[in-house]
Design brief:
alpha/beta, 11-stranded mixed beta sheet, globular
Length: 507
Amino acid sequence: MIYLEEAKNGSLTCRKEGQYLHSKYNPEEEADKFAASLKPDFTPFCIIAAGPCLSHCLIPLRRRFPSVPVYAVHYASFFIDKTACSRDVWDGIFCTEQKNEYELSEELFESLGEELIFGALFTPWLPAERIFPDQSRIFWAAVKLMLRKSRDVLATRAFFSRSWLKNTVRFFIRTRHICGIEKGGQAVLAAASGPSLAASIPYIKKYRSSFFLIGLSSALSALIEHNIYPDLCISTDGGFYAEYHLRVLQKLIPEGIAPPLAVSAESRIASAVSERLPLVPLRYNDGIESLLFDYCAIPALKAARNGSVSGTAAELALSLTSGPVYFCGLDLENGKGYKHVQPNILEKNDALADNRLKPLLTRLSVPADGALDIYRQWFASRGEAFSNRLCRLSVQAYKKRLGPIRDVSWDDIKSDLASYKKEKPIRIYTVKNISAAENKQKVRDFLYAEKEGLERRKDKEHSVQWYKNCAPLAYLSSVKYPESAEFKAELDKKVLHIFEELFKLCT
């Protein structure tokens, strides 16, 4: 039980089990000393106060770190409303109660993002650490998970940044046929590439007319192998192997089959696909892609950036219909055996290296990496936004649950599919067609204007966008450690070099 009482100086203090969480004499003076004791060797991007209780530390933290957002992670919901200052003064309030470390980590990451977390200063209120040991353990375990995810996301951005930027420029140069989507109320089925998709394929064929089918890129080979053509394909991966999954679409073009492809600008797609297939551009509203969408006047659907195409597909599907969304092949399970439904182009490539010393069984006995655990936790943490309308669909039960998201069988949804056939269908329509010359000239003009502005430092906001896209880790490090000339020199060198490469794409 937590008890509020008046301190000797007339301020509010509190205690739990006979131990004071703030000074019983002068809580403000105690909080001032706490803030003054913080001497980080870097420039914080944000402050995360762990267990601040009655929030006496907030005003001193504001004075100590002006213009830096300050967040509270309370160890008891009791303190959310009972504070020495208005709760609105915090930039954000979180609580460890009724959460495990995974849920808290995802909540913090969703709110703050990898960049703020990269430069976060964590300031634990020591009395709360001592008096709420279990909640403290949850918080620091969540911090560990959150920092690891931030590190991985930033490392991925740093590694692929130049490749993604080139993909983005190629996208705007090559795109010819732009489509949009009119939302409806029919049921949507999204097909991912987990091994369980194989058992659902006969049912997908049987009920094909009952839903709008979205085929994730890694599942396309298996679907098309059985003459199942999605209403919409989706690809968001900017890696080298991503375009391999789309080769099956290239083979359909001579047959007069051209399913629309929802694709982010940074995705890796072959020229034959981007020039000949109808594309539904997906826009993340961040980075250089956002500037190019505006400059080239290309309409796009708003999409959420995720670690996997399945996350983006799930949120896109929910935004396209007021009806239910079913997900097949969303196994997200570690284990031995094939990691994807067959046929799969990556498996065909891996099979080329099989030999007597390293046969197929040896390769399949290696469990998948921990990325699937992260994706599973992400889906499980979506809450009512997903659980109200999104279900996993399969013939046999999935081995691992996705939090509150329901798992259903094909028998469970027969009547629902029949009723939703009467709802307004989702419709894909042509928005505009663009010539190759028009595309290339617009992109070239854009790059010249951006390079000139960057060299003259005319637009700080645009400069930051280029820094973040070309060298995200170097940029964030230069902000975190502003005295370092090394990071700043590295930024200019990398950005100018990338501009040279981008201009070559426009020749």
